[in-house]
Amino acid sequence: METEAVIIGGGIAGLHCASQLAKMGQQTALVEKAPFLGGHVAQFACKATDRCRRCGACALEDVQKQTGASDLITTLVRTTVESVEQQNGWFKLSLLGRPPRIFPDECNDTECERACPAVGALVRSPLDNRLYLDEDKCLFFKDGSCRTCVEASPELAMDRKAGEEKLAVSARAVIVASGFKPFDATIKPRFGYGLVPGVVTALELDSMLRNDTWTIGEEDGEIRSVAFIQCVGSRDAKIGRNYCSRVCCGYALRMARLLKHRVESLRPTMFYMDIQNFEREFEERLKEAEKEVRLIRSIPAEVRRGADGRPELIYHGPGDERVIESFDLVVLSIGISPAAEDILPNLGTNRDGFVGLDGEEVGTQTEGIFVAGTVQGPRSIDETISHAIGAAGRAASYIRRISNGGAL
Amino acid sequence: VKARAIESIFLTRASRPEVPSTRVLVLGGDTTGILVAERLAGEGFPVLLLGPSDGASVPDTVAVLSGMELEEIRGFVGGFDIVLGNSTGRSVERVGFVVAAQPEDVVPKFQDYGLAKSESVRSLSDVEAHVRSSAMTVPRHGEWSHVAFLLGLERGSDPTVLSRTLAVIETLGQMEKVQTYVFTRQLKVAASGLERQYRECRENGTIFFKFDDAGPIFEGDPEAPVMVFNEPLLGREMELVPDLIVVDEHLGPPTSLNPLLEAMPISFMADPYLQPESTRFSGVETPKAGILALGPSRGVFDPNLIKSDVESVLAVLKQAGDEPRDKNLPGPPEIDPAKCTMCLTCVRLCPHGAMTFAKTAQADPDTCVRCGICAVECPMKAITLAPGPGQTAIDSRVQQGLTRTTSSKKILGFLCSRSAGQALHASKMEILENLVPIVVPCAGSLDVSHILHAFQEGADAVIVAGCFKGNCASGYGTVLAEERSRMAREILDTVGIEPSLLQFVSTAGNTPGVLARAVSELETRFSALT
Fold first, then answer.
1. CA of A286 to nearest chain B CA: how many angstroms apart?
2. CB < 8 Å to A105, chain B
3. Which DSSP string do the residues of A297-314 spell out, in sequence order?
4. Do B192 and A350 make contact, defined as CB atoms within 8 angstroms?
C-alpha cells in the first residue's frame, strides 16, 4: 500500500492529523494498536455543569465523525508498527495487524461480558458501544487457559484461529501521535494507591463519570468528602518527572466542580503546589471555583487507612500544624508520562523527556517524521488539537516538496 | 455591541469574485508576523504584510505595506476587501485570507501595586532590554545588590512571564553579589522546560516567596519603596529594601484587533480575542471563515505553541475549498426573492457571518455551515435549506419516524447533530428503543412549529436536545432552542397538552447517559399521565 502519510496513533491527535490532511486532499493511513479509535479521550467524561466547562472531551466525537466520512483516510486498528526504513524519499513501514477475533453484530447476548474474568479483555467502545476483544488482556490468547466467554455465550461469534497479517506501507511522511502514558501511581506508594481502599486515580474517576458508574452520595444524600491530590508524578525531579503535566489542575478542578454540581452536599478539597492557568482571565475564574472547592496549598505526606476504614490524609496545615483528615474518596491527579516504548528510532528526546527536539514544536531529529500531541510533551485536549493541525500543516508542506523532487 | 451589529451589516457587502483570491494579508510586524509571511510566501501564496517597523528585515518574497492602518474588512473568504488608510487617504486591497499575527499587548503592573516607575522600579521588559545590552549594571546601595521580582501578586501571571523572569534571573546570577527574590502567589510552570528552569534558579540561590495572604505591602517612596511582608513559611514579619524592583506584566490581546473584531459575527464576541473561548474552535480558526488568529490574537502567548500556530495557518490555507460536507447536512440557504423584503434579520443573526445582500439576502456558500438558524429566524419565511442528499424536510421525517415506530410509547427526540446526535451512536439501544430520533444540524434550527407538529403527528412526548451553553458550534443555537421549547410548552398548556411532556436537555456527544435519562424520565411521566 502506498500513501502520503502514515499517522501512528488513533487518539485525538492522530485523528486530527488525519482529518486535517484529508481537508488538504492528502491520503493517510491511521494506525492504531487498540481495537478502536479514540485513545485516552474516549475514557474522559464531559465536565459540563449547568454549562460547558470547556474540557474539550467531546471534540473526539466531532473529529471521529469527520475522519469516518473521509475516503482519503485508511484506518488500521489492532495494528502496530514493526519497523521503518527510509529509501529514496519514502518511508517503508512494516505493520502487523491482528484479526478482529469477535463479531458482536452476530450475537446479541451480553453473558460473555459479564462472565469474562480478565479486566479489560472484553471492552465496549465508548464511541459506538460495540464490543471488542483486547488480545493483550484475554487469558485465552495469553496461555489458552480460559474459555469462559464462549461457554457463557455459546453464540458468541469468535474467531480464535485467524492469524496476524503483515502489511507493507510506503509513505512520504510519518506523524507520530502515539500519546502519553498515565503516571503509574504505585511508584509513589505514600499516596496509598493500590494499598488503601478509597484511593483512585483521576483517570479512573474520569472513566467512571463517563460510563455513569460513579454513584457516591447520589443515592443516600449523605454528606461526602472527596480529596484531590495534585502533582502525583509531576514536578517531581526525584522520580525523573521534572516538569509540570499542565493538564491536572484543569481536570481536577473541573471534576471537583462537576461532583459538587451533582451532589450539592459534597465538599471537594484540592491539595496543590501551584494552580496552573487553564482558562483566560484565570485568577477571576479561580475565585469562582474557590466558592465550591476548598483549596489547600500542601501536598499530603501520606495517605493511610484510617480506623474507620476510610482513607486518612496527613498533611502540613496552613497554620504550620500537622493535620490528619479523613475522606470518603481520594483522587490522585496523576500526570502525563512519556510513553515507554520507542515507537521509532532517531526521533530525539527533549528536555522534559518526551519525543522531539527542544525549541522544535512538530519536527523531530529525522526529516519527514513529525510529532503531534502528548507524545511530544504534556498538553490539554485543546492544545493537542491545535498541535495536531500544526503538525499536519508542516507534514503537508514536506510531502509536497519531496513529491515534487524539490530540494529540502 | 448593538451599534456594531448594525454597522457589521454593511461590512458584509462585497462582490463575490469569480476566482477566489489566494492572496493573504498578514497583520503584525514583529518576528512572528514576518515568520508567517515568509512561510506562506515560501509555499507559493502571494503575501501582503502590514505593520513591520522600518528597518525590519523582511524577505523579498513578501510585499510590505507601510504607513497604513487597517480600517475595515468587508466580504468573505476568497474575496475580502481590505480598507487601509492613513492621513493622506484610503485604499482598498482584495485578499482571500487575513491572518492576525500581531504581538500581545504588554502592560506593566505599576498601578496594580501602587508603584511608580523609576531608576529602581522597572518593568520586566525594561530590565530585559537592559540585560540584553552589555552595559547592564544593577543598582546597589550596600555591598550586595538585592533585586525583587514581583510576579502575579495582582491579576495572576502566565508561564511566558515566568519564563522571561527566570531568564533575567539567570543572567543576573552571573554577576557578582546579586541576590534575587521572587514574590508570587502561584508559580505558573505549565510550559515546556519551565519547572526545570525554576528548580535551577532556586538551587542557584534565588529565594521564592509564595503568598496566600494579602502579600507584601510597599511602604515609603513609591519610586524606591520598602517591602514589608509576612514570610509565608515562618509566619514572621520581614522587611526588604530592594535596590531594584522588577514589576511583572499583564499579557493581553493585541491592541489593533478592532477592525477584525468588527468583521466577526456578533454571536461569539464575548471577549477581546478573535477566537472564542469555546472547544468548538481549535487551531487558528475564528468564527469568520478566512480570518485566522495566531498566538496572542487567540489568547495563546507561549512561544512554543505559537510555533505550531504558524504551521496551522499553512494547514488551513491549503485546505481545498470543496471538502466533502456531511451528507446529513442540508444544502446552502435558498432565498425566495418574492418573499425577501431585505429586512436583513438573517444578516444580523447569522452566527457565522455568512449572509450578505444584493437584490435579496444571500448566503456565502463557503462561509455558511448549514446550521439553519437563518431559515427559522426569517420573519418572511423566505429562506429554506434544501435537505441534504437522501434526506427529507424535518416535518416529513417526523411523520415518517412516528409512523414507522412499533414502540408503545412514542418519544420523539430532536437531536442536535453536534451533540445528542453523536451521543445516540454511543447509546445502549435497549434504553432508547422508545425514542424516535430526528437529527437536526443545530438545535437552533428548530421552530416552535416543528415541535408542535411532532405532537400533532402523534408523539407522546418530545425531547429537544441541544449542546451545553457555551458549547454550541453556532454560538446561540442552543439558547434559541431552549427558548423555543419554553414557548412551545406555553402553547401546549393552552391547548390542553401536559407541558412537561416537552423537555429541553443540554447534552454533549459523549453524554449518552443524559439522553437515556431524559428518555426514561419522559416515559415515566407519560405513563403516569395515562
1. 10
2. none
3. E---SEEEE-TTSSEEEE
4. yes
How far is the first Cα of chain B from the last one, in angstroms, to the nearest whole number? 49
Dihedrals φ, ψ of B420, to 5°? Answer: -60, -30
Residues B325, A19: Cα–Cα separation, whole Å: 13
CA-to-CA distance for A67 and A63, rounded, in angstroms?
6
The C-alpha atoms of residue B488 and residue A399 are separated, in whole angstroms, by 54
Could you tell me the pLDDT band of residue B320, with boundaries at 50, 70 and 90? low
User: Residue B63 and residue A150: Cα distance in Å, rounded?
Assistant: 70
At B118-150, the pLDDT tens digits run 999 999 999 999 888 876 678 888 899 999 999
Q: How confident is the model at residue B389 (pLDDT cuts 50, 70, 90)?
A: low
Which residue in B183, B185, B192 has the most chain A C-beta atoms within 10 A of its own C-beta, making it the best mutation to test that interface?
A: B192
Quote the CA–CA distance of A384 and A386 in Å, as a whole number: 5
Q: Is B239 within 8 Å of chain A by CB?
A: no
> Per residue, what are the HEC states of B140-179?
CCCCCEEEEEEECCCCCCCHHHHHHHHHHHHHHHCCCCEE
B194/A244 CB distance under 8 A:
yes
ipTM of this predicted complex?
0.94
Confirm if B299 and B272 have CB atoms less than 8 A apart. Answer: no
Instruction: Give me the residue label for grid cell 494499598.
Output: A195
Asked if residue A304 lies in contact with residue A200, where contact means CB atoms within 8 angstroms, the answer is no
| φ, ψ at A61 (rounded to 5°) | -60, -40
Q: By three-state DSSP, how is residue B42 classified? A: helix
Whether residue B466 contacts residue B416, with contact meaning beta carbons closer than 8 Å, is answered with yes
In the three-class reduction of DSSP (H, G, I as helix; E, B as strand; rest coil), residue B302 is classed as coil
CB atoms within 10 A of CB A140: 19
- Work out the widest C-alpha separation in chain A, in whole angstroms: 72
Q: Which of A57, A352, A340 is nearest to A181 (CA)?
A: A340
Classified as helix, coil or strand, A219 is: coil
Q: Which residues of B touch A24 (CB under 8 A)?
A: 315, 318-320
Å from B307 to nearest chain A CA? 6
Q: Provide the grid cell at B191.
A: 510550559
Q: How many CB pairs under 8 A join A and B?
A: 209
- Is the distance from CB of A192 to CB of A230 less than 8 angstroms? no
Nearest to A386 among B195, B308, B423 (CB): B308
